[in-house]
């Protein structure tokens, strides 16, 4: 018997002895061998045209099934470069009895465990899709995948192959997961998977690091603290800024505000020179660059507004008479003007109540820019007819969002105690005061914050004359060149007039024949017309 026959007999005996443990492995026939005629050792070679058969007992180690059970995996995408194909060998989630009749299948090679977390990446914890142009998959690319009791690392590996990105998982990322997704954007699916398992990610270029949220937050906190410590050691620099339009003191208060509104660092400081309007800033180089950008943004000329006010006083009801005359004149131009005000006069809001007055006491009316010249003409006509007169017509120019104040009146002296046992003279104002703060909108309209106060001398008292006060405060939007009219500020005076003949009127008893007493009630109305116009830089 040659050595080849002995080898075949030995292999057959080994197969019979292994049948007790591998019943599902069929016996293989003896390898087709023949002895070479010219060899003394009896070395065997395959026959010509016959491929050598693999030996099932030689090769890589056989791995048993996972403890968590088999995982069925199916993923699909829009492109074949995702690395996931439908014809991949999948492990069926069948019964354990079926597995006893089949040889164990060698599982896919697992990635080696990481020794500690990778290099920390820059925040944010969720990657932004605005500036991620590194060749990865589009965030809206749909993905379809089905996993049943699969390891979380396997699911992350599927995402890595689908997107073409590199995903590095922390050693604490573990556990089983069941996923059933159909045509879902991969970013939505990926973020949902992380949220469910309390994970977060950080991305740099085409590498995504996945770790527990607490670990990633702790690492970012360490990075922030290290950056703060390095900032304390960084040398300071100084720079002088020459401001053209804003005041240096205002910019200084903006930079050195308290709390979260502070722009400078803890070590930074700012000094303003009112004479030269220079601002000296000392801080880190990075903060100085931010301050320079801020100053370049705010150091621009402000738009200005010319505010023309006409304060008119007339008999009671003259404002209604003026409105009627304006409606008649505007009706000759456009009948629609006096109705809805879209093309001319404006919206009549005189029935609306203002602060401190009833609905029938004070109100305002808006006039469009085309009707402003009509208002000026009618006011001049009323003054010529003696039905009213213009008390004051001030004009003031103010910057955008800057309050302008116009005040006209008198100051009344009165005795007041300055301190115990000592009295002094103080003054009270009885004046007409107008405060206007304009705000230019992006559409070229003007928002006016109006405050009007009309103080007059009242009845005399032991401490001094009383002050009758009327106050209106409102906020209104008007177009450039339009006019807002505030009326309904009434004043009532009761007068006792005595008319007598000189000398004879003072004679007792018979003097009454030469005297005449009359009680009169005089009512007047005050109306304020304000016209703003935008001037200056566009």
TrEMBL record:
Location(s) in or outside the cell: Cell outer membrane; Membrane
Cell membrane found in the keyword field: no
Secretion signal, residue range per the UniProt entry: 1-23
A GO biological process held by the record: protein secretion
Swiss-Prot/TrEMBL keywords: Cell outer membrane, Membrane, Signal, Transport
Boundaries of every Secretin/TonB short N-terminal domain copy: 165-213
Positions of the UniProt region annotated as Disordered: 34-143
UniProt key word Membrane: yes
Composition skew (Low complexity), residue ranges: 90-100
Pfam family, one: Secretin
Domain of life from the UniProt record: Bacteria
Biased composition regions of type Basic and acidic residues, renumbered to the chain: 75-88
Assigned GO CC terms: cell outer membrane
Family per similarity comment: Belongs to the bacterial secretin family.
NCBIfam families: IV_pilus_PilQ
Protein's name according to its UniProt entry: Type IV pilus secretin PilQ
Organism whose genome encodes this protein: Trinickia fusca
């Amino acid at each position: 018997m040659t050595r080849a026959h002995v080898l075949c007999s030995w292999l057959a005996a080994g197969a019979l002895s292994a049948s007790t443990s591998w019943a599902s492995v069929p016996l293989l026939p003896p390898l087709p061998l023949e002895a070479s005629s010219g060899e003394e050792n009896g070395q065997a070679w395959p026959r010509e045209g016959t491929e050598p058969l693999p030996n099932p007992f030689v090769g890589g180690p056989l791995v048993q099934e996972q403890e968590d059970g088999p995982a069925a995996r199916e993923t699909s995408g829009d492109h074949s470069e995702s690395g996931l194909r439908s014809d991949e060998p999948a492990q069926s989630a069948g019964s354990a009895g079926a597995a006893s009749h089949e040889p164990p299948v060698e599982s896919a090679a697992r990635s080696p465990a990481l020794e500690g977390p990778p290099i920390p990446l820059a925040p944010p914890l969720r990657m932004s899709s605005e500036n991620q142009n590194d060749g990865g998959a589009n965030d809206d690319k749909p993905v379809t995948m089905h996993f049943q009791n699969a390891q979380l690392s396997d699911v992350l590996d599927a995402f890595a192959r689908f997107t073409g990105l590199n995903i590095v998982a922390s050693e604490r990322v573990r556990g089983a997961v069941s996923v059933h997704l159909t045509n879902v954007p991969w970013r939505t699916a990926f973020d949902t998977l992380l949220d469910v398992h309390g994970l977060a990610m950080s991305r740099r270029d085409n590498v995504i690091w996945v770790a527990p949220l607490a670990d990633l937050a702790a690492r970012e906190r360490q990075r922030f603290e290290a950056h703060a410590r390095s900032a304390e050691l960084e040398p300071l620099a100084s720079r002088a800024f020459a401001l053209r339009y804003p005041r240096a003191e205002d910019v200084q208060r903006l930079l050195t505000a308290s709390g979260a509104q502070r722009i400078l660092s803890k070590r930074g400081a700012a000094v303003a020179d009112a004479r030269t309007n220079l601002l000296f800033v000392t801080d880190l180089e990075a903060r100085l660059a931010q301050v320079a950008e801020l100053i370049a943004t705010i150091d621009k000329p402000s738009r200005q507004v010319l505010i023309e006010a006409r304060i008119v006083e007339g008999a009671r009801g003259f404002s209604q008479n003026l409105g009627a005359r304006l409606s008649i004149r505007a009706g000759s131009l456009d009948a629609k003007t006096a109705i809805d005000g879209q093309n001319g006069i404006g919206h009549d809001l005189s029935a609306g109540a203002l602060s401190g007055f009833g609905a029938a006491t004070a109100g305002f009316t808006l006039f469009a820019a085309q009707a402003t010249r009509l208002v000026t003409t009618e006011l001049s006509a009323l003054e010529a007819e003696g039905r009213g007169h213009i008390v004051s017509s001030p004009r003031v120019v103010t910057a955008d969002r800057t309050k302008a104040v116009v005040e006209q009146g008198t100051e009344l002296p009165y005795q007041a105690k300055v301190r115990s046992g000592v009295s002094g003279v103080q003054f009270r104002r009885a004046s007409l005061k107008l405060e206007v703060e304009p705000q230019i909108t992006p559409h070229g309209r003007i928002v006016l914050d109006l405050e009007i106060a009309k103080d007059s001398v009242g009845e005399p008292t032991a401490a001094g004359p009383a002050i009758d006060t009327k106050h209106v405060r409102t906020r209104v939007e008007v177009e450039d060149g339009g006019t807002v009219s505030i009326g309904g500020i009434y004043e009532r005076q009761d007068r006792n007039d005595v008319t007598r003949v000189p000398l004879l009127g003072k004679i007792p008893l018979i003097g009454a024949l030469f005297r005449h007493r009359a009680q009169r009630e005089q009512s007047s109305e005050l109306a304020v017309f304000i016209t703003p116009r935008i001037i200056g830089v566009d």
